[in-house]
Design brief:
about 325 residues, mainly beta, 5-stranded antiparallel sheet, single chain, Tachylectin-2, Chain A, 4-stranded antiparallel sheet
């Protein structure tokens, strides 16, 4: 039988090309190996921010069924890669008279030359104050800032956004999103002026950023115990809405070995249009909704200002703050 050498060479080249392409694609879509968590241990609901020349993460201490943690820690880093545990900054049994457990999902803001720390405690929202981002924090009210039952849904997951004009807004809520403008003292607000709404798919964990005049409200969909837990967003011309949900797939979701990726926060590198998203995922291996770990991934925008899908397998490189 006569063999067509030209055809054979072409076929071999095609096979080699397919194999090479498959090898490259396998590297790109490898979902079996995820970057390690940035914090050692099980921590969830990370609130990432920057003060001065350091990044900070304020998380929920995880590892108990029912999320019965009783204290909060702070972590700091000069570069987003190397993180130092700054210790306990607020201990509920020691520092509060109105709640002893369920210390969840904190956030922090700087104003009036002080640091204001907002947190969930026994399904209420409290506020604490310190002169340093690493605490210790003290309760200035002796009671919740927003007691449970103030609005429908769970009174959890606070987030504070300070706008360019210095006005501060508090967002919170599981089951529906609530927003109210904080008073200048940062420890009070007018509950009669709370705006409540529920974007399609919204469950919990609201977080707001502002970029090029656009306000982005981001949130978690599904339940934190659900492997489908993910992040979506909406945009507005005002910090109090109305917000229009972005079309398409979630901004962040698990894939392969990464499950339950959500309850996030976002930080901008000072002086740059460079953004990073912190979030938790089920601990790898053998994690679940009570054993979660904190991760960081780059977050990018397209030319139209849409948030691009986050690659949970992209490893964060060291970032320097030039400020």
């Amino acid at each position: 039988m006569m063999i067509n050498t030209t055809y054979t060479k072409g076929l071999l080249a095609l096979i080699a090309g397919v194999m090479l392409s498959g090898s490259v694609n396998a590297q790109v879509v490898d979902t079996l190996n995820a970057p390690p968590p940035v914090l050692k241990g099980v921590y969830a609901d990370p609130n990432i921010t920057v003060f001065g020349k350091r990044f900070y993460i304020y998380p929920t201490t995880d590892g108990t069924e029912g999320w019965l943690s009783t204290s909060f820690t702070c972590w700091s880093s000069p570069n987003l890669v190397d993180w130092k545990n700054e210790g306990v900054i607020l201990d509920l049994p020691r520092d509060l008279t109105w709640a002893k457990e369920r210390a969840w999902a904190p956030t922090i803001a700087f104003k009036n030359n002080k640091y204001y720390y907002y947190y969930s405690a026994n399904v209420n929202i409290g506020v604490a104050v310190s002169d340093k981002p690493t605490g210790p924090f003290k309760d200035p009210l002796g009671k919740p800032l927003i007691p449970k039952g103030t609005r429908p849904g769970q009174t959890i997951d606070p987030m504070v956004f300070v706008d360019d004009d210095g006005a501060a807004y508090l967002y919170w809520g599981q089951g529906q999103c609530n927003v109210a403008k904080l008073n200048e003292d940062m420890v009070s607000l007018d509950t009669s002026k709370i705006i409540s709404f529920k974007p399609t798919g919204y469950n919990e964990g609201p977080f707001v950023i502002k970029r090029k005049g656009i306000y982005y409200l981001m949130w978690s969909e599904y339940d934190t115990r659900d492997p489908r837990y993910s992040i979506a967003y909406a945009t507005s011309a005002s910090p109090m809405g109305p917000f229009k949900k972005a079309a398409g797939f979630p901004v962040l979701k698990g894939k392969g070995v990464v499950k339950g990726a959500g309850h996030h926060s976002v930080v901008q590198v000072p002086g740059k249009d460079e953004w990073y998203i912190a979030y938790h995922r089920f601990k790898i291996p053998d994690g679940d909704g009570y054993n979660r770990e904190t991760c960081i991934s780059p977050m990018r925008f397209d030319a139209q200002g849409h948030i691009l899908p986050v690659n949970v397998f992209e490893k964060v490189k060291a970032v320097s703050i030039k400020k």
